[in-house]
Amino acid sequence: MKTLTRPEVSPGTSLFLPRGYESQSENVTLDANRDDEGYWSPWRISQSGKYQKHVYRWAGQLIQRAGFERVLDIGCGVGTKLEEYIAPTGATIVGLDQTSAIKNCQRLGRTGCFFEVDLESPDFEPDELFDLIIFADVVEHLIDPVPAMEMIRRVLAPDGLALISTPERARRRGRACKRSEKPEHVREWARGEFVKFVKSCGLTVHASKLLPQDDSPMGRGLWREIGFQAHLLRRSPYACHTVLCGKG
User: Fold this and answer.
1) CA 104 to CA 134: how far, in whole Å?
2) DSSP β-ladder status, 156-167 and 130-136
3) Beta partners for 244?
4) Do the domain assignments include residue 168?
5) Considering 105, 184, 214, 237, which has the largest number of Cβ atoms within 10 A of its Cβ?
6) CATH of the domain at 99
7) What distance in Å separates the CA atoms of residue 27 and residue 143, rounded to the nearest whole number?
8) pTM (whole model) above 0.85
9) 189 forms bridges with which residues in the sheet?
C-alpha cells in the first residue's frame, strides 16, 4: 500500500466544495492486487481501456477537426486509450505519469514519449507548448491539485485546448454525499463546483459535458440521467464530468 500525504492545498485557494465536505487527508493507492503482482498487473492493463473512453474519443475528434499536432496526456497510465484514439491521428504524443505506468508504456511499445513526473509538484518543462492536453480522472487523486492545474496553463499553447475530467460526485455517489467512498480519491466535485474550480485556475471553460464513466455507448443510460435530473433516481451513469477549456 502506497500513501502520499500533503498537509493542505495551496494557500488561498478555494476548491469550491460544499460546507461540511470532508476531503481525505491522504491518497491511498493499493499496489497489491488480487493476483499478487504490482499495480499494473495483467488484469488491470486489460481493463485500462474501459474507463474515460469517451474523453479520449472526444480528444481524437478535436485533434482531427482542429489539426492539432502536439498532445500531452497527464496521468496517461499505460497508454491504452492513447494508442487507440490519439496515435491514429498522427499527432505527437507526450505522456506523464508515475514510474510503474511509464515503464509499462515503454514495455508495451506505446506510441509517444513518456516521462516520470510527480503530479503533486510537477517540474515538467517541455521544449514546445501543446495544442491539446488530456487530464482524465486524475485531479481527484491529488492532495493539492493546484500545481498540476498551473502546469496545464503553463504548457498549453495560446490557442490550445485542455480536456479535464473527474467523477461527478452527485451522480456517482448521490446528492447527499460529503466524502469520497474511494480511498484513492482525495475529493470529488459536483458539476458546478468543478467548473468554478477550473475557472479559478485561470482557464476559460468552453464546454461542460457529462459522459458515461465506462465504455457504455452514449445514450444507453440517458433515461437514468433524465430520472436523476427529475430527482426520481439517486444516481446516474453519466458521472464522468468533462470540461473543455483554454487559457483565460
Assistant:
1) 19
2) parallel
3) 163, 207
4) yes
5) 105
6) 3.40.50.150
7) 7
8) yes
9) 168
42 vs 81, 84, 115, 151, CA distance in Å?
A: 16, 18, 22, 31
Report how far residue 31's alpha carbon sits from residue 110's, in angstroms, rounded to the nearest whole number.
22
Instruction: List Cβ neighbours of 237 (8 Å cut-off, separation of 6 or more).
Output: 171, 212, 213, 216, 220, 221, 224, 225
Domain for residue 3, yes or no? no
- Structural domain including 213 reads 36-247
Q: Is 228 within a domain? A: yes
233 HSE (CA, 13 A, CB side): 15
Q: What are phi and psi of 180, to 5 degrees?
A: -65, 140
Q: CA–CA separation, 41 vs 75, rounded Å?
A: 17
Tens place of pLDDT for every residue, the chain, 248 residues? 344 433 344 544 579 999 999 999 888 766 554 555 678 888 889 999 999 999 999 999 999 999 999 999 999 999 999 999 999 999 999 999 999 999 999 999 999 999 999 999 999 999 999 999 999 999 999 999 999 999 999 999 999 999 999 999 999 999 999 999 898 999 999 999 999 999 999 999 999 999 999 999 999 999 999 999 999 999 999 999 999 999 97
Structural domains counted in the chain:
1
Q: If you count them, how many residues does the chain have?
A: 248
Burial (0-12, 13-18, 19+ Cβ within 10 Å), 59: buried
